[in-house]
Amino acid sequence: MSTTPPSDAPGADPIDEAEARLLAAISAVETRLGQLSSRMGEAEGDARAARHADEDRARLAEQLDAARSSEAELAEAAQEASAALAGAMTELKAAIAGAGLADGGPDDLLAGDRG
Description:
It contains 2 helices and no strands.
């Protein structure tokens, strides 16, 4: 219960009552400021997390672009290697056919070099 006598009580001091109301209002403001400060801290944390997520997204997008570029370069190199191997196989087959060794095995190639 309140220790301050009601305003219509014979011994009530209006200054004491005003002081009590002022202290109660200050306390309510301080409580509300504490709540707002807590909410602001949470909002700042959320904003930092959003910035980090944006930075991560940008970094991942750059890495993905680099990986796609590397993939394209590797695919092109693989096609060039495949074409070079096909050309070498064609030349080798032509050389074997030209030497008359089409039916022979590797030993015939070596024998052809000796003879």
